[in-house]
From TrEMBL:
Record protein name field: diacylglycerol kinase (ATP)
InterPro entries, alphabetized: C1-like_sf (IPR046349), C1_DGKdelta_rpt2 (IPR047477), DGK (IPR037607), PH-like_dom_sf (IPR011993), PH_domain (IPR001849), PKC_DAG/PE (IPR002219)
EC number: 2.7.1.107
SMART domains, sorted: C1, PH
Phorbol-ester/DAG-type domain location: 111-161, 183-234
Catalytic reaction annotation: 1,2-di-(9Z-octadecenoyl)-sn-glycerol + ATP = 1,2-di-(9Z-octadecenoyl)-sn-glycero-3-phosphate + ADP + H(+)
Membership in a protein family: Belongs to the eukaryotic diacylglycerol kinase family.
GO-annotated biological processes: signal transduction
């Protein structure tokens, strides 16, 4: 649920420039883009953030949002608008419980749900396999399956986000004497630094290239050479009692 949204002027300290951006506050995250109709929004995590007016003689109606990672100076069109934004941002800080996210039907279509983000270590595009470069924004990440892509590559990404229904699994479905079961759904590369292969228990993944695999469901990580040795059926991981697998859903509607 969007708590507040609207246009604000975003100041850039480095270049002494200001840019008009469309902001929306949802949950504990502040999103912004060029317009309300933009497909891709940058985001600011407001966990442990502080908000205050920028100065005592505030003729610009500006306020500052400071997080552990960055500082934003934002200007509203008038004082009333500025006070409403500050109040909304402070409400988020004090709120302990949030309503569940109301997912749109797009979340069940197989399409990726992109957001722009930075990465603390070398990360590689799952489309072209080249490194994501940049200082503040290392390309796009899918908020559901963590598929990575350059902004230029996102349009070429296949709609292979985390499965949602029986039909989305397709021909890979496993049928045996126990009925139907789900195989692993693999995503290549960008494994955590501490990744260990489920089969041989040796370090896997690489910061030098897109390498090795992670299951989106059970979180198993394997070398490419060990992948065939792992049982095909996915056990759904440690939290399996809390997981509704796509094999249990025939269709999704409103």
């Amino acid at each position: 649920t969007v708590i507040k949204e609207g246009m604000l002027t975003k100041q850039n300290n480095s270049f002494q420039r200001s840019k008009r951006r469309y902001f929306k506050l949802r949950g504990r995250t502040l999103y912004y883009a060029k317009t309300a109709k933009s497909i891709i929004f940058d985001e600011v995590d407001l966990t442990d953030a502080s908000v205050a007016e920028s100065s005592t003689k505030n003729v610009n109606n500006s306020f500052t949002v400071i997080t552990p990672c960055r500082k934003l100076i934002l200007c509203a069109d008038n004082r009333k608008e500025m006070e409403e934004w500050i109040a909304a941002l402070k409400t988020v800080q004090n709120r302990e419980h949030f309503e569940p996210t109301q997912y749109s039907m797009d979340h069940f279509s197989g399409m990726h749900n992109w957001y722009a983000c930075s990465h603390a270590r070398p990360t590689y595009c799952n489309v072209c396999r080249e490194a994501l470069s940049g200082v503040t924004s290392h390309g796009l990440s899918c908020e559901v399956c963590k598929f990575k892509a350059h902004k230029r590559c996102a349009v070429r990404a296949t709609n292979n986000c985390k499965w949602t229904t029986l039909a989305s699994i397709g021909k890979d479905i496993i049928e045996d004497e126990d009925g139907i079961a789900m195989p692993h759904q693999w995503l290549e590369g960008n494994l955590p630094v501490s990744a260990k292969c489920t089969v041989c228990d040796k370090t896997c993944g690489s910061v030098l290239r897109l390498q090795d695999w992670r299951c989106l469901w059970c979180k198993a990580m394997v070398h490419t050479s060990c992948k065939e040795s792992l049982q095909t059926k996915c056990p759904l991981g440690l939290c399996k009692v809390s997981v509704i697998p796509p094999t249990a859903l025939n269709s999704i509607d409103s």
